[in-house]
Structure prediction request, 547 residues.
Amino acid sequence: MAAGVGKTYRMLQEGRAALQDGRDVAIGWFEPHGREETIALAQGLEAVPARRVEHRGAALGEMDLTALLERAPELALIDELAHTNAPGGRHEKRWEDVEDVLDAGIDVFSTVNVQHLESLNNQVGELTGVHVRETVPDQVLARADEVVLLDLTPETLLQRLREGRIYPLDRVPAALNNFFRIENLAALRELALRQVAEEVESKRLVREIVGTRAEGIAAEAPQAVGERLLALVSPTPSSQRLVRRAWRSSQRLGAGLDLLLVVPPNRPLDPVAQEQLEALRRLASALGCNLIVEPGEDVAETAARVARELGTTYVLMGKPRPRSPLRRMWAPALPFQVMRRLPGVDVRIVADRTERGNGGT
Amino acid sequence: MTTLELILLAAAGVALLAAGAAVGLRRGTRVLTPGAERILFPFSGRRLSREALDAALRLSKAEGATLVPVYLTRISRQLPLDAPVPQACETALPLLDVIEQRASRAGVAVDSRIERGRDPRHALARALEHERYSRVVAVARSQATDGFDPDDIAWLLEHARGEVLILRPERDEPLRWDAPVLGSLG
Prediction:
């Protein structure tokens, strides 16, 4: 919610609990702000040594991202997500460091004040008259598995401030005259409560939608329930783009994604096509989707059979190659053949966005 | 209808079909033919050097080569090397899309990849092992953009087959990761 509510303290508490549960925990960075209780809580938790940086004649401490990645704990505690790093680091912002840590498969507990969220920054500025320069993109918070709100009444927070538990006593009068006014704190509290309520609601909706299908009440659920996507690929570079687009759609729908490559039976792929197939395999593996290689003379028929077997609700394919009118008369294009064979299944032709702005034909 | 009229009608029909076929074929869209040469363009992080990409595209264009951008991503030691990396893909995919769009405008064929490794150098080693290429264009790290450290560049020079071109961008305005907000349906 705001400085002084106990974010760092709570983060360390969670870290200690995880350590007691047998997890490998290390502190990547924490800001004790000279608070003795916070420092005491960090005792016994392994801390990755800070990186020392000279900036404008001052010696600063920064999180050592490289050392943390080398240490590779199971869980890293990284305070102050919105912090701007001193020049010379790998990234400008700490939230970018945290993205690297997450990419390395390390879980992260972090802390952020509500006024640092990008979408709320202007609103906070209007409400409080204080413009915060360090912001965190909202999608960083949206990617968090859990968001815990530390809520204190403004009166309690002000009491803590006056007791010197947030800033040294000599800084208290200035704080009381600026950010720590009761109306500011009340506004921030309301914003924080709303933000977290929205987060919780959106996650609950997704879970409920996915869950209801299995419980047999899918008819009442929104259309996103139980979607399963099938992308028809070919052993060509353009299929990489198709797979990427299909994967994004599957992520948005919370749906499974299968890739289907129909190959002529009893005819081995040429070396270039084989190379592309291997590339598709690696891409499918990185994205976490299934690649099915199925022999078949008729692509539409094979795709329809596989789609029925998998319970596909959505078929994606690339734009068909231009064909002569004679060939069009002889057999309809693949999308039409698939639509005819799979009634009730959506068929989407994925355009080549690199052609945008090239004009139509 | 006389026999002559039938013959004329059939001839007219054939002529119309032939004309239609010709028009239909001419309306085909431009397809970039993959070049025989392949130029590997490995990169990682979120800030891709625009200058380096444009240089790689110019080289590919001049050589008639296919550009192979390879996004290198780290995978935790606690996970198998072939484990999915959806979070890294959320970063990689928009960057690969941007590269393909710029390549298309430059008239260069592209064949994109995502390669996993325990660290960027390991991912790079795997890419060198998996991919067919004649050259490598790599970017050195700068203040503005992500790129390879000196140690990685030395390693690359030692291990890559074919020519290696190292670029050091100056005052670059990077292409950045710009992923959509997750969590929405539709």
The CA atoms of residues 53 and 84 of chain B lie 27 Å apart. The first strand of chain B starts at residue 38 and ends at 43. Confidence is low (pLDDT under 50) at residues 17-29, 178-186 of chain B. Chain B touches chain A through 56 residues (CB under 8 Å).
